[in-house]
Write a structure and sequence with these properties.
Length: 185
């Protein structure tokens, strides 16, 4: 199947869903070449499509949609792997970030900031975010559990992450590190 040149990403939900269904499996396979983990590849590609959907009205491409997605997916994979390397170096440098009293106080402050930021996320959006980030559920599982479309879950996750980025700024990488290595909040 050939992909025709387009000027922009579909902004209509049904058109974008068709666009997603057409390209998602190929992008997951492509991401697997980098990540070697199917679940992680699926999650990363879902994030790529979420970002494309959020920015659909501002994205203009001069190549094919498929080429654009390959580039976006490759860049996301490389960024993920780079971030993983940094996390591992940080984890190796500090056995336990919470071992000292000062760190425990900082942790408590961080938890407080996270809770305040989470309170700013609309209720349904927050529920979706918590199911994904705190319970480890994938977008598809959340969509089925809450009887929502996959696109709605993707949109709500994008909205939640945007709010958290705005509210937590520089703390977000540390929070993600703590989720991965420090336990639950």
């Amino acid at each position: 199947m050939t992909t025709s040149l387009i000027r922009s990403i579909p902004s209509d939900e049904k058109e974008f869903e068709a666009f997603f269904n057409l390209h998602y499996p190929v992008m997951v396979g492509f991401a697997m070449n980098y990540l070697k983990d199917k679940d992680q590849a699926e999650e990363l590609v879902q994030d790529v499509f979420t970002n494309v959907w959020i920015k659909a009205e501002t994205i203009t491409i001069s190549t094919s949609a498929k080429s654009y997605l390959f580039t976006a997916t490759r860049n996301a994979c490389l960024n993920f792997l780079k971030h993983q390397k940094i996390e591992m170096a940080y984890a190796n440098q500090y056995e336990s970030p919470l071992s000292q009293t000062a760190n425990e106080l900082e942790y408590d402050e961080l938890v407080g900031r996270l809770e305040k930021a989470l309170d700013k996320i609309p209720e349904k959006c927050r529920e979706i975010f918590e199911l994904n980030r705190f319970e480890g559920k994938r977008y598809k599982e959340i969509a089925e559990e809450l009887n929502l479309s996959l696109k709605t879950v993707e949109n709500q996750m994008g909205k939640a992450l945007k709010i958290l980025r705005n509210e937590l700024g520089d703390y977000l990488p540390l929070i993600l590190w703590l989720w991965l290595y420090g336990g639950k909040f």
